[in-house]
Structure formats: structure tokens, C-alpha cells
Amino acid sequence: MTDIPRRAVSRTAKLAALPLGFAGRTVLGMGKRVTGLASDVISAEIQQRTAEQLFSVLGQLKGGAMKFGQALSVFEAALPEEIAAPYRQALTKLQEAAPPLPAASVHKVLASQLGPGWRDRFLTFNDTPAAAASIGQVHRAVWRMPDGTGRDAAVKIQYPGAGDALLADLKQLSRLGGMFRAIQPGLDVKPLLAELRERITEELDYELEAESQRAFAAAYADDPEIFVPAVFSASPRVLVTEWVEGTPLADIIADGSEQQRDEAGRLMATLHLSAPARAGLLHADPHPGNFRLLPDGRLGVIDFGAVARMPEGTPEPIGRIAGLALRGDADEVMAGLRAEGFVSTDEPVDAQALLDFLRPMLEPVAADEFRFTRAWLRAEAARLASPRSPAYQFSRQLNLPPSYLLIHRVTLGSIGVLCQLEAKAPYRGILERWLPGFAPVG
User: Fold this and answer.
1) Is the pLDDT confidence value at 197 over 90?
2) What is the distance between the alpha carbons of residues 223 and 295, in angstroms, rounded to a whole number?
3) pTM of whole model > 0.90?
């Protein structure tokens, strides 16, 4: 593979071609409408063809397109199966078949980051990458410890020019909002892309990632449920960490037993809710590729490039207002949301209607146990995203304060993974333990 900047022209051309194909299909739909074909059939056909083209192009790209595809993948459980299926296939190909960086280029990066004697720092180093990511690839090696012994290691090496490619791809993808709305009405990808742009600088800095990983590792040291690998060495473009052996969550989703899926979901929820309290950080990239189910039953976490710094933990109003909603206290829910900026102080909003809008979202914690399913998420997505839905109309009266944007996105992403797992667990009990302000119900 040539390095990323040389591929920019080809990549940009592929991305730029997407809106043209979408425009052609929209005209086709208008033509069929004239002939009397049902509008829902036309819409489904346009959705299907648009999805196939979009995911096909994303599947040929690296950089920002891959990062965006990973971020969007956690929401695929909300898409109709005929659209989600080709999307899953494209992402699988994307992650398994990305062209590797040649060994000579790998060695050059290692020499620049670890020094000309970089080979002496390893007992063995495999030139064939074990995995590819959006901005780099991972090699398996044996790291030489200070006492001369070896430890199995994962060596993450950043592609030359990855930063420029990421920003260029995200700029192109930001022009495709209309296409995503065609696939899923009500889906607005622009805030997601804006947030991804803000985090690019952090994700490109492996020393910053190492700092976050060390903080997580300290918080979960000797934990019986969550495993965070040690950091052996970090430089701006090379990160060496402990190798994690386990079953990827994507495999659990595809072929895991019900018991495995339920346990993976419980552990995912535990990590998501406990990390702000324990580490002062929130793992902000909850897609299945970042997690492993270990042979001893723990959840292994392997990527800390995207984290939210939450030194005060999860904001207390989130738990308090959720508890009030479950207890049916409409006026207090209204007051709490208004104080946090979710409800405008100028617009009149019916408190009971607001509570009715929120209660279905809290169904997973209204009972002792709940099974997340794709069907549940699709129904909830239809309720909230369809312009003809009363809930959609009501949602237009509400705001999402900037301070809550990342928490909201990560929570939605985690729920998307739980729905892919179709995991049953005692989610309310996990909230009662880890979410500040969330009082037991009943």
C-alpha cells in the first residue's frame, strides 16, 4: 500500500460520486411516482440502492471514512435488516481486508518513534499486521521487559499521513447528510461528524491515548469483571501495550451463545456506567471491535483513543431525573430538565407530555431485568425519528445542551451494541450502583 496522502485523490473521487448516484435514484423515484407506484415501495427501493452504494464506497476507504463507519456501526441495529445486512458486510470487509502498510514503512515508523535500535526493545516482532484500524495497524510482538523477560504485546503503528487523510475524508462525508436521511429519516450525521473532527487530534496522539489507558488500568487493576491491558511504551505515533487474547464482541454478536451475549452486555453496561466514577473518564468509542470476552469471563478493553474526561464523574442530574421519571413525577422531571437546559425557559411545554415522551426510553431500567433487542431499538427509532410521529414533533421542543452531547452519543452507541448483542441483564441494578442521583424505584 502506498501511504495515505497518495490515495487522497482516488478516495475523494469515490466520496464525491456518492451524492450524484443518490440524485439519480431520487429522480428515478419521482418517475415511478408519476406511474402510480406506491410511495413506500419507492422509498424502500431508494433506501436499499443508496445504502448499497454508500456502504460499498465506505468499504473501500480508510481514514475518516472508516472512522465514521465504525462510529455509525453502533446504530445499525436501528436500521431495517435489508439495509443493515450489507452495511455489516461492508464494515467486516473494511476491518479485515484493509491493505497493510509494507514492512519497510513499518520499520521506518518504528525507527523514528522508538529509535534506530528499536529491534532491541523486542524479543520478536511480526511484520505481518494482526489487525487494521482507521488510522493505523496492529502488529503482534514480544516486548523485552527491563528484567530481560518477554511479554506478548500489541504494537499499534500509525499510518504516515493519517491525520490529513482523516480530516479530508470527514470534510467530504459532511456533505452526505441528505443520503443518510434517505436511509434513515430523521438521522442527522452532522453533529456526529463535528464531534469526530474535534476528537481527531486526540486520537492521533498515542501518548495521550497511553495516558488514558494507564488511568483506566489503574482504576480497574485486579478487577474481577473488566480487564485493561498495561502500557509498555508510548510515542506520538507508536503505542505498545499488553496483548489481549479473547473473543471479539463482533464474534459474540454473530455466533455467541445467549449466555455469552447476556454476560457481554452486562459487562459493557458496567464499564460504561462505572468508568466516570472510578477513572474520571468515559470510554467514548463503544463499537464492538474495541472489546473482547476473555477466557476467564472478563471484558477486555483494547482502545482508548477516544475518551471523555469527566473528573467529577457522571453529572448527578442524569440519574436524579431518570429516577423521578420512573416514579412518575412529571413536574419535578420538567423542573430538572429545564434547569439543565434540555427544555427552553421561554417555551411552554406540557409536563405530562414530556414524561410520556421519556418513559419508553427508560423501559430498560423500569424492571429488574431487560433484554435489549433490535426490534425494540427499531421501534424506538421509528417513534423518535419519523417526522409523522407525535414523539418526533414533541422532540423539536427540546434541546441537547452541548455539555451533554458526548454523554448522549456514547450512551446511544452503547445501547446500539447491547441491541446487537440482544443482551438481557439487570440494568437497573447497575444504574443504582454507579449512576449518581439514581434512587431505587418503588
Assistant:
1) no
2) 15
3) no
